[in-house]
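Consider the tokenized backbone below.
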């Protein structure tokens, strides 16, 4: 497998410097990428070990609780604590699978960090580009980073201009409307979609 390279040498900070609390956002993305590369090299494809290591990485780098609330919108407020816990667990697995699949696609390419932009709400957007071995630019990937009580966390990823968080909010909103606004029912949908090796084993029992 060709190396996934992360180039911090290409960082170009815009004229408005990022606020101090998110100034290290490019380093967060660089660390995410380098550790994802290590996981791809050190674990078999589609193995439980690869899944567990990516799950831990997602929990460390993404604000999964905030994303869970965002993608469920107003339905989060009316859900019971038990239903929220079930959805959080299913959604965490879902995000892990999305991230694993994305880095699998980029494993033979280069992810170059291009710059950082401070946002009015105190977050920062780190821009990056995926480049193949022949120097042909592929996806542009923007990472929205915020300062949380647990440190810097990713709160959205946009691929070629499409916000994943917004897309999932719309997708899940449609499912919730069809399921009577039940977050537990949405969790069940995600559980049934799961390709988590350990989850798949449970389904086959």
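A designed sequence for it:
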């Amino acid at each position: 497998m060709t190396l996934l390279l992360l180039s911090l040498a290409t960082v170009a900070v815009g004229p408005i410097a990022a606020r101090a609390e998110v100034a290290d956002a490019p380093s967060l993305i660089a660390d995410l990428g380098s550790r994802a590369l290590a996981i791809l090299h050190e674990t078999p494809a589609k193995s439980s070990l690869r899944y567990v290591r990516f799950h831990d990485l997602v929990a460390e780098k993404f604000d999964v609780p905030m994303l869970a609330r965002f993608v469920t919108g107003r339905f989060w407020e009316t859900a019971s604590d038990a239903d929220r816990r079930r959805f959080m667990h299913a959604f965490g697995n879902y995000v892990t699978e999305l991230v694993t699949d994305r880095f699998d696609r980029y494993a033979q390419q280069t992810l170059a960090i291009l710059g950082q932009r401070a946002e009015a709400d105190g977050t920062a957007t780190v821009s990056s580009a995926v480049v193949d071995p022949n120097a042909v630019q592929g996806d542009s990937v923007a990472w929205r980073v915020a300062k949380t009580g647990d440190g810097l966390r990713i709160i959205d990823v946009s691929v070629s201009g499409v916000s994943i968080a917004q897309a999932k909010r719309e997708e899940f909103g449609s499912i919730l409307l069809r399921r009577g606004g039940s977050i537990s029912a949405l969790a069940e949908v995600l559980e049934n979609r799961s390709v988590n090796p350990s989850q798949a084993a449970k389904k086959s029992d």
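The beta strands are 5-7, 12-13, 110-118, 124-131, 137-148, 151-159, 162-163.
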